[in-house]
Amino acid sequence: MVTRFRPLAAVLLLCLGGCAATTHQASDGFTPPSGKYKLVVMKPDISVSVLTAGGLNEPREDWTLTARENILASLKQQQAKRGGSTQVVFASTTAANDDPKLAELDRLHEAVGQSVLLHKYTPYAALPTKKDKFDWTLGKLATDYGAATGNDYALFLFARDSFSSGGRVALQAVGMLGCVVGVCVLPPGGLQQAFVSLVDLKSGNVVWFNHLVSTVGDIRTPEGADAMVNKLLETMRDPDAPKKSKKS
Amino acid sequence: MNGSRRHFLIGGGACAACLPSLAGARVLPTNLESLVDTNYEPLDPDERGMWQSCERIEEMIRTSPQRLDAPALQDYTRGVVERLVGRETPDLRIYLMRDSSFNASMYPTGMMIVNTGFMARVRNEAQYAAVLGHEAGHFFRKHTITGYRSIRRKTSTMAFIGAAAGAAAGYSGQGSWVDAANVINQALVMSVFQFSRTHEAEADAFGIMLMARAGYSTSAASAVWGQLIAERMASAKQRGAKYKDRSESAFSTHPPSEDRMQDLSDTADHLSTVVVTNATDGRDEWLAAIQPHRAMLLEEQIKLNDPGASLYLVESLAQDGWTGVLRYNEGEVYRLRNADGDDVKAADAFAASTALPDAPAEAWRAHGFALLKAGKTPEGREALNRYLTMKPDARDAGIVRYTLNQ
């Protein structure tokens, strides 16, 4: 399967006007889950921040909680349309219910997912041995988990969203002014980034992966969360579907 | 650097003038009040966001396979913290972690992390308390949030995120500090929470104050740093490198170790004249608590392949008396370094270990092989048999039996 390397910087440059771009990766011979299957949605890793004037991302608890609820609702709705029986799993936040195996799977996916991002989506960081193929796996940990729970697939989602503070917007306005005299330094505003990966719990392989970068959208609202989830998952159709979607 | 810290004292220590006996450049320990109590809940959005992020990190730490499973040591550690704080501590959660680096850390939510690499180097309860008290200082003085706010004002992102930013930048540099902390590697988790030098100095002072109140010998605080400096020097010498204080740099968040040691020592001297009576260093208590873990702690250090540091460590701990475990590890350092004459030194150390009552089974194995090498076959075989008797299910029992059957 041909893979496409899409330098993030280039995507962002094209996106200055405000747009969203996704590029997905799929393993050889991937066919989307169909018929009766059990998909487990792992606890999504979501954080929503305010972008301070100085460019710090400052996590906001209330925004993050709302966004998480919205995204889970969207995922459920989206999966219901596909006909699978979706079960949502939360890694517990109380010590009494900690499941170390589940936590380990989360951590493993985090490492693998970040590697995919680095080596498939970052310019100059492509690995020669992974050229033209997509063969990441979570291995035995995932298959063991599948066998123990009877789930067929696991869906992992990572999302970061940020919104400019008043100070940041002012800074951007000042930057704009500079353009008048020919010195254009535009501090970037809030940004939405997300990735989602589908793991086949029979093989342990990451069979499908999609990454989204957007300068528009707001996952703090149900509509914004729907939009993100749909953009991330809409290309999970069949192997011959267009590999890239882009909206201005 | 000393200058800047003096400057802080003048600016921040309102009571500097009323204690003229304190000549040095340090934060005064006597008027630092705790800023959080057991029911503390953050209200501001930035602090709440920070707590939420920390809770996520704690979830990761809590379920980490790197945690040291040692309930007795866990209770002991809490006991030391409670003695320091002078009350029960339902607001603190203590995690002992298998990590060979000299470190302990405290998160604003009350999560305290104590590394095995720190425990390995501690010689008595007072030294243990010194570092835990320092960490508690960061917590009770709310350094994380005040540090963050100061950075936000100065808008120098890099200083706050520090080295961790590079790793987080793998995700296009748009992550928050929690993403930096999220990068699996625990060392990074810790480096995210670097405090400013003034905060470090204040935590030192706070820690010493707690120690004095709890009746710990306050000189232990500077002793910890003294040991660390000496160990790093020994390590550098062995490697043929020049000792460099990593916190010497102007960009470092920590006061230079030697200045810090001096400050701690001055403060301790001062406190010993005004506060402390019958201070103890709790050596016996510490040795009893750490004894079941010493072999693991030393093995962890020795496998770092830093013979200079390891020899220093073993010899430093041996100042409280050689044990079979210490002698065995001394031998291991020589065996692994394998320089000229090290085989003899290793053999001597293994022999010395087996002469002590707490010699580990591994010492008998090492002693046995050393004897066989030296041509003392009957003695060597006897030692190896002793190993098999002590540890019949050892993973290498088969190969030892094979040797015996030759």
- Chain pair with largest interface: A-B, 35 and 34 residues
Distance between the termini of chain A: 27 Å
* Uncertain residue segments of chain A: 1-14, 91-96
Radius of gyration of CA atoms of chain A, rounded to a whole number: 19 Å
Major β-sheet annotation of chain A: 9 strands, mixed
Number of domains of chain A: 1
The computed structural class of chain B is: mainly alpha
Shape of chain B: elongated
The strands making up the biggest β-sheet of chain B line up spatially as 1-3-2
Low-pLDDT parts of chain B are 1-25, 156-178, 180-193, 248-253
Describe the structure concisely for a colleague:
The complex is a heterodimer of chains A (248) and B (406). Chain A is α/β, with parallel strands linked by helices and 248 residues long.
Characterise this structure.
The complex is a heterodimer of chains A (248) and B (406). Chain A is an alpha/beta fold and 248 residues long. Chain A has one domain. In chain A, 36% of the residues lie in helices and 24% in strands. Chain B is mainly α and 406 residues long. Chain B has two domains: 3-274, no CATH class; 322-404, Serine Threonine Protein Phosphatase 5, Tetratricopeptide repeat (Alpha Horseshoe). Chain B has helices at 2-12, 45-62, 71-85, 116-119, 125-140, 143-154, 157-161, 164-168, 177-181, 186-192, 197-214, 219-239, 257-274, 283-290, 294-302, 307-318, 324-337, 342-354, 361-373, 377-390, 397-405, and strands spanning 93-97, 104-106, 111-115. Classes of the chains: A alpha/beta (248), B mainly alpha (406).
